[in-house]
Write a structure and sequence with these properties.
283 residues; mainly beta; 5-stranded mixed sheet; 13 strands; globular
């Protein structure tokens, strides 16, 4: 009860536990059936065909008899103007995906699945400089996603992770805040037990979570069960601690990487998660 009380959300744990709506669908936990877990270069002007001493290239001013004047240099050979580079984009993202990243966003968690129907992938965090563009700021981290892979049309119980670009505004977990700048809701309602799809224990999976703003109201605890798109579209999609197997809808990261992510996420950079299988993200 002593950690970062000024940043906590109103406690929803008791009500959620009583209603049976808590932690639905992530990593094999039953609930809503699969919803936890949204240079261009410029040519130079070159020289005019004369050498630095004013000669015409034949060794004398105006040239000697029988010698032809040198050909003037074309614009392609001019290289003395400064060159500029286009800001870099995030590799692997196509125009449709890039256009979905809000212009004010300068921090993106890119979760790339290894296949449309596969449940493993990677995460790489990028940040955007106004001049040089996007650049990675972390190593590549391994991930799990939903058991059946990815979907553009997530529905409750489909065991697929939604594809898209979604905000990251709220965090929480069973353990104390590791130092995030996001609002952090800590409490026993993040407890989980049982086993996942491969028989792996689920305990500790929700020690640290970041809510993905798919079918939820930003600015509330990850435990909030409001579903703007309706219950049938699932919800409770989170980034959380990996338990060694596929999830019901979330994206999971190794424990140490989740702590690192929580410390790195900066609300002032309007962070988003860009997630989907590699082929879909190239659209």
């Amino acid at each position: 009860m002593s950690v970062r009380s000024v940043r906590r959300r109103p406690r929803l744990a008791a009500a959620l536990l009583a209603s049976g709506l808590l932690l639905s669908g992530c990593g094999g936990v039953t609930g809503d059936g699969g919803s936890p877990p949204g240079g261009v270069t410029a040519d130079g002007k070159g020289v005019d065909g004369k050498s630095a001493d004013g000669t015409d290239g034949a060794g004398s001013l105006g040239g000697a008899a029988g010698r032809s004047a040198p050909e003037p240099r074309t614009s392609e050979s001019r290289t003395d103007e400064p060159r500029t580079a286009e800001p870099k984009e995030i590799p692997g993202l196509g125009p449709k995906t890039l256009a979905a990243i809000p212009p004010e966003t300068t921090q993106a968690v890119v979760a790339t699945g290894s296949g449309k129907n596969r449940n493993t992938g990677t995460v790489l965090v990028y940040e955007r400089d106004p001049v040089t563009g996007w650049a990675p700021v972390t190593d590549v981290w391994p991930t799990h996603n939903a058991r059946r892979g990815w979907t553009d049309d997530h529905n409750r119980g489909d065991l697929r992770t939604p594809i898209g670009v979604f905000g990251l505004t709220d965090a929480g977990g069973l353990l104390p805040d590791p130092g995030t700048r996001l609002p952090y809701d800590r409490g026993p309602a993040f407890s989980v037990s049982g086993t996942g799809f491969q028989g792996e224990p689920l305990a500790g999976s929700f020690d640290y979570v970041v809510a993905i703003n798919y079918n939820r109201v930003p600015g509330n605890t990850p435990l909030d069960w409001t579903r703007p798109l309706g219950a049938d579209k699932g919800g409770g999609i989170w980034l959380h601690v990996d338990h060694g197997g596929p999830t019901e809808g979330c994206v999971s990261l190794p424990r140490g990487r989740m702590k690192e992510l929580l410390r790195r996420l900066d609300p002032g950079k309007r962070p988003v998660v860009v997630m989907g299988d590699a082929e879909s993200l190239r659209r």
